[in-house]
């Protein structure tokens, strides 16, 4: 029966541009990067005899995400693509959205096969691929949403250390390595809600324009501009505080001159804007102990208010 199923494609003959091995890219830029924490994936590789890697979609602090052809399909059926997350370690805050247009992955896979993105190949054969994730504006209504990867969750009844979460959603205690617990996801929720409803990332300017590299100092500078100076107690707990702050708690990064909730909220107006801003502020504070819990947030009046549409 296997001959009636989809067969893996041969390796592409297109030559990908080569990147300088001395310059870090993609997952190599994560704060605690180590090659041992990432699976050595290769384009064209077939995982578990079923999923053939077609192009890279993204990366995390311990994982990479790939568009893959599902070979468990009858040949006369349309190609089926899935997103495969490969990790040597992941995290409890992953959200997956079913793609809105089936033609998008097929186009991406074909483009990678014919015009591969630049790659960085080390002498030992290890390859770092660039991410193909710019697909333009949505073509249709977004599909189903799933929360996944609970298997790598950590206990929240004690402080944990290390790097977690996507860069723009990391709270101060994670960046500073001051110990995190359940509350780290509350900060992420607040930033994510802002990004979704305002259709613009709250901390979208924390990447270098020249290199597109995540700037941790700039991130903390933006948080400082939004919340004011950080408390000394938090800085004292941080194992990485010295990387971002001078003695006396002065941030080494350049803070934007105008950066506050009221100025940045443009899609929500009037009373809705005021209530939404108060709701977000309950999640975005310097000290995790000051954030509202998930149970408390569920009682917030903004969630139950009805507003007239503009």
From TrEMBL:
Single annotated GO MF: ATP binding
Query: Protein kinase domain location, by residue?
Result: 1-303
Question: Which reaction equations make up its catalytic activity?
Answer: L-threonyl-[protein] + ATP = O-phospho-L-threonyl-[protein] + ADP + H(+); L-seryl-[protein] + ATP = O-phospho-L-seryl-[protein] + ADP + H(+)
Q: What is the lineage of its organism?
A: Eukaryota, Fungi, Dikarya, Ascomycota, Pezizomycotina
Write down what this protein is called.
Answer: non-specific serine/threonine protein kinase
Q: Which Pfam families does the record match to this protein?
A: Pkinase
Q: Which domain of life is it from?
A: Eukaryota
| GO annotation terms (biological process) | regulation of mRNA processing; spliceosomal complex assembly
State the top-level EC class. transferase
Arranged from A to Z, the UniProt key words for this protein are: ATP-binding, Kinase, Nucleotide-binding, Serine/threonine-protein kinase, Transferase
Binding site residues for ATP? 85
Question: What does the record give as EC number?
Answer: 2.7.11.1
Q: Which InterPro entries match?
A: Kinase-like_dom_sf, Prot_kinase_dom, Protein_kinase_ATP_BS, SRPK
């Amino acid at each position: 029966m296997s001959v009636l199923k989809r067969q893996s494609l041969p390796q592409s003959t297109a030559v990908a541009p080569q990147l300088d091995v001395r310059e870090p890219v993609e997952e190599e830029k994560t704060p605690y990067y180590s090659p041992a924490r990432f699976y050595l994936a290769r384009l064209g590789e077939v995982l578990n005899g079923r999923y053939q890697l077609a192009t890279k979609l993204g990366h995390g602090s311990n994982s990479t995400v790939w568009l893959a052809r599902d070979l468990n399909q009858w040949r006369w059926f349309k190609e089926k693509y899935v997103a495969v997350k490969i990790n040597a370690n992941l995290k409890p805050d992953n959200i997956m959205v079913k793609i809105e247009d089936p033609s998008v992955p097929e186009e991406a896979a074909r483009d990678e096969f014919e015009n591969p993105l630049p790659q960085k190949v080390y002498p030992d054969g290890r390859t770092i691929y660039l991410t193909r994730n710019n697909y333009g504006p949505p073509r249709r209504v977004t599909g189903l949403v799933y929360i996944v990867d609970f298997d790598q969750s950590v206990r929240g009844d004690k402080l944990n250390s290390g790097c977690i979460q996507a860069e723009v959603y990391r709270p101060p205690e994670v960046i500073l390595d001051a110990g995190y617990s359940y509350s780290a996801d509350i900060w992420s929720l607040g930033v994510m809600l802002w990004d979704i409803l305002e259709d613009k990332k709250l901390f979208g300017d924390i990447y270098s324009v020249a290199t597109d590299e995540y700037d941790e100092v700039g991130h903390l500078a933006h948080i400082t501009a939004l919340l004011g100076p950080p408390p000394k107690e938090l800085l004292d707990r941080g194992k990485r505080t010295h990387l971002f702050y001078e003695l006396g708690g002065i941030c080494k990064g350049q803070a934007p001159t105008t950066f506050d909730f009221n100025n940045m909220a443009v899609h929500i107006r009037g009373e809705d804007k005021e209530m939404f801003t108060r709701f977000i502020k309950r999640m975005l504070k310097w000290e995790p102990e000051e954030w509202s819990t998930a149970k408390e947030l569920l009682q917030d009046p903004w969630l139950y208010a009805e507003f007239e549409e503009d």
